[in-house]
Amino acid sequence: MAEKKDDATGRGKEVIRLERESVIPILKPKITMKLAYLIEQDTDRSEFLKLCKRVEYTIRAWYLLQFEDLMQLYSLFDPVHGDKKLEQQNLTPDEIDTLELNFMSYLFQIMEKSNFKILSDEEYDLAQSGQYLLNLPIKVDEAKLDKRLLTRFFKEHPQENLPEFSDKYVIFRRGIGIDRTTDYFIMEKLDLIVSRFWGWLLKTTRLDKLFSKRKHLHKKEDPKKTDELSTEVEEPDMFVERIRLEKMDLSMKNLSGKLTIQEPTFDRIIVVYREATSESKPDRGIFVKHFKNIPMADMEIVLPEKKNPSLTPMDWVKFLISVVLGLVTLGGSLERPKADIKVAIAVLSGLIGYCAKIYFSFQANLVAYRNLITKSMYDKQLDSGKGTLLHLCDDVIQQEIKEVIIAYYILMEQGKATIQDLDLRCEDLIKEEFGQQCNFEVVDAVQKLERLGIVSRDSIGRISCVSLKRANDIIGITTEEVVMRAQQGPVA
After folding, report:
1. Record's Pfam families (predicted)?
2. Among 32, 276, 357, 371, which residue has the least CB neighbours within 10 Å?
């Protein structure tokens, strides 16, 4: 949610309020070694490290078959080689449709387990409510995207709060970060100077009322922007400030020196879509693309099948109206008996400056857009297709292991706890020992501990764990341990 605050100088700050993520942003080895270090007894420390290994091996085995099914299904819908494998299977169209839905169902389950969330319309509008490095309106060429696959899937598996573009593509997001850029921003500053001068000129000539009426007709109230903090949020959220050039003071220091702008980012974005094909030769390929550190205001760079950017119809209308009104005003001032040459020069210079602003701003933004697209392909795109799915599978395993280890450690060290107490204790541990905040998924963690058989509940619902040695005995020797012992050879 975007909110406006005032700093000590009275200037407005644009602050975005973001919900805490469920993902634990700490590497598993760091968690296991840190928690083991906190255990005083050497024997207990050894048993704890053994338990961590056995938990990891067991959880990997749980997901092995599910992930194998996912990868087998995707091999049929891989945009590169999937069509050949489908031909070899000799499947009917109905059978292929069923396999498609099965793959999409597995994929969405993996996304949920990896703590990815579908980007909603509100979140998309919030991200686009500001500008960062990309200053061009980017649109998707919907004619190049298939609508049947996702429409069929969401009809079979309905979900709440789906975005309006969910019939063409789905954007999953996870994690929040901050991106900062420091530069002179020469063209952007010139654009800002011309824009403010043009605004002053319109206000002086009272032509701004015409544009303000047009904006009012097209403007929609953004429910995510408010001047007051909401008191309905139960969980403590994080706040990130947007620092933009549009808010800059036109001082000599700002105009001549470097400036740093700031924008919150989506730490991970995954886009799922299919390209449109003809009825006679349908292409069943499903694209799964994975990006990192995407600034919210520039997230159009991850959209599929983007149109080449151009001036919007509204830009052309404003441009033509400005030219006509400027020429009329100039002609009227010259026809007066006592023509004010200064006014005429001001109007003419403003008109020329505005036309130059539109042209040079568009050219500069076009260059910036191409650079951003190139950078996103080389720097920000992590993987696609099978590589993304493998990454997701490992993400699920890592998160599940970390949840189990942290929840068990708290029960082992602090004793019985209700589900609410355990949740708070786990979050406090993550904050105090690792300096991170997250919304710990305690229910999921307890379910896995119960499945492992190393926790129990009493008559009033409090959860307690068995001893370390007993927990290792219950899980038992894993296949990986047997293999490692065999590789080490017989003990002399």
Report:
1. DUF3754
2. 371
